[in-house]
Design brief:
Blueprint (H helix, E strand, L loop, with lengths): L1 H38 L17 H21 L4 H28 L5 H13 L4 H21 L8 H73 L7 H33 L6 E5 H11 L1 H6 L3 E6 L5 E5 H18 L5 E9 L2 E8 L6 H9 L2 H8 L7 H12 L3 E7 L3 E9 L5
Parallel strand pairs: 2-4
Antiparallel strand pairs: 1-3, 4-5, 5-7, 6-7
Length: 434
């Protein structure tokens, strides 16, 4: 949490720096133009100003014209250096304060006011966003400096002190207000950027999903339509009983696959909407696993696969949602059968580990890449959907398993090595014991 706050703060500082960079060159050129305009005044040094042969509007304009021209040149030359940019911004702010102080001093000496200081303070507050506490300290420091400088110049404080305090107060208020507004703009932009990123991710998942679904749905549909067309067009001589039975088997297999696919989609929607209730009951893990293996035995026999059961105890009893538990084991076991080659081996084990029932399903199939495994184990369900859906097939089985595991307050860890097999290890909490 602290790292996220720190990261956001750093991003805001970078955002503020970019604002300063955009305003600095314009500000420096504007001050240079003001200095040239002041030079057009031909009144000369004022006799009312102490040391007027040195401290006069002409000399001040020339000095600060050169200063801000140098700031503009340095900024342009080193615009790729972040450190120099920051130093240049602070230098521009400080010299702008000094320039306004000098003009205000001349104004007070000629029975005028500190209008130049007020204008400079407000311009800096509007144009530059630096660390607020430092900017406020600089406002105070500049006010104190101007107060003592005018006293040395024998200007009575009662002439300007109220105006000086007003300028400092208004400058601080404007700086604070602008800082809050800039932060609000920055965080609003961040929020919009995050929402856009989430939307793009959702659209990416959706496009991948429909890409796979179009393939998964069209394949069995094309087979069903193709075999039905063949049955319609075949004549009595070629349409034997064996052919009818063979084509009917293909069509039945395609139809069952489509039904299974649709059921997976509906189950996922129910899970996401919280529509699947959990009915807790006492189960015997060893007995259930044996029944599941027997039910899926035709698939194992067809692929000549060997399914081994391993139990530490004759009976492992605990309370869980039996229907959801069966769907978890069915999905993972059928997944192992699907990706394990002919004459492959599948090991199914169950044992008690501390206050959990550990069930492991291990195969020697083709495995899953380490990149996908890390994202399955570490990321949230929506992201898992994205990466699982890129695997062979729709991947709905693994998505539903993860969601069902969560509903039963269980945990699952996936370990795999490509070419050597995959292991799904689950831990179901023991709620009550016999």
């Amino acid at each position: 949490m602290l790292s996220e706050v720190k990261s956001t703060t750093n991003h805001y500082i970078e955002y503020a720096r970019e604002l300063n960079v955009g305003n600095l060159s314009k500000f420096a050129l504007a001050v240079c133009i003001v200095c040239l305009l002041i030079l057009t005044d031909t009144s000369g040094p004022s006799p009312l100003v102490k040391y007027n042969h040195i401290f006069n509007s002409d000399n001040i304009s020339i000095v600060f014209f050169i200063t801000f021209l140098c700031i503009w040149i340095i900024f342009k030359i080193f615009q790729d250096s972040i450190k120099i940019q920051r130093v240049t911004v602070w230098a521009a702010i400080i010299f702008a304060y000094l320039f306004s102080d000098a003009l205000s001093y001349l104004g007070l000496s000629s029975s005028g006011g500190i209008t130049a200081m007020a204008v400079a303070h407000l311009m800096i507050a509007f144009l530059f966003v630096e660390r607020l506490k430092y900017q406020l300290l600089l406002i105070i420091a500049n006010g104190v400096f101007f107060f003592f400088a005018t006293n040395i110049g024998e200007i009575a404080p009662n002439v300007f002190v109220i105006a000086l305090l007003s300028v400092m107060f208004m400058s601080a208020i404007v700086s604070y207000t602008m800082d809050i507004q800039r932060q609000n703009v920055f965080y609003a932009q961040q929020k919009i950027a995050n929402q856009v990123e989430e939307l793009n991710r959702a659209l990416d998942v959706k496009s991948v999903f429909f890409g796979h679904m179009s393939h998964e749905l069209r394949t069995p549909l094309n087979a069903i339509i193709g075999f039905s067309d063949m049955l319609k067009t075949m004549d009595d001589k070629t349409l034997t009983r064996e052919k009818v039975h063979e084509y009917a088997e293909y069509m039945n297999s395609g139809g069952n696959y489509l039904l299974s696919l649709v059921n997976d989609i509906l189950d996922q929607n129910k899970l996401e909407a919280g529509g699947i209730a959990v009915s807790i009951e006492r189960v015997d893990v060893c007995e259930l696993l044996q029944n599941y293996v027997d039910e899926l035995n035709p698939i194992s026999m067809d692929k000549q696969q060997q399914v081994n059961l391993h139990f530490d105890d004759e009976a492992l009893l605990f309370d869980t949602g039996q229907r959801l538990f069966k769907q978890i084991i069915y999905n993972l076991l059928s997944n192992a059968q699907k990706y394990t080659p002919e004459k492959g081996i599948i090991d199914l084990s169950a044992k008690r580990v501390a206050e959990n029932i550990e069930i492991s399903i291990q195969d020697n199939g083709k495995g899953i890449s380490s990149e996908i495994i890390q994202k399955i184990n570490k990321t949230s369900i929506p992201v898992k959907t994205h990466f699982i859906s890129k695997a062979e097939g729709t991947g709905f089985g693994l998505i539903i398993v993860q969601q069902l595991i969560d509903r039963l307050n269980a945990k699952i860890v996936v370990c795999s090595e490509q070419g050597k097999g995959t292991t799904f290890k689950m831990h179901f909490p023991i709620i009550n014991e016999m």
